[in-house]
Amino acid sequence: MEMKQIGIISVDHEPGEPYPETDTDWAAVDIPGLIPVPNVKRLRESLSMTQEEFAATYRIPVGTLRDWEQCRKNPDAPARAYLTVIARNPQAVAEWLKPAA
Fold this sequence. Notes:
Layout: H1 40-46, H2 51-58, H3 62-69, H4 77-88, H5 90-97
Helix pairs in contact: 4-5
């Protein structure tokens, strides 16, 4: 009996390198148990902010932000929820976090 492996692709990837671009619509992929992790670097860059600006604006330690962006650590559940809120309405979150005058 001959067995085939279908749909397996091997990609050489070094830690810290961006992942290769694909045509996969990951928002449409429903895999039970898959925990979506926001792409923090892409979020920050879409807001045209430096790491320091993003960290200060959203009150995230810059070291933690760097760990997330460099895939040394993944955001925990509360941080993923917070990043999702930031992604949906960054201006409102920034406004809510401004110090009271």
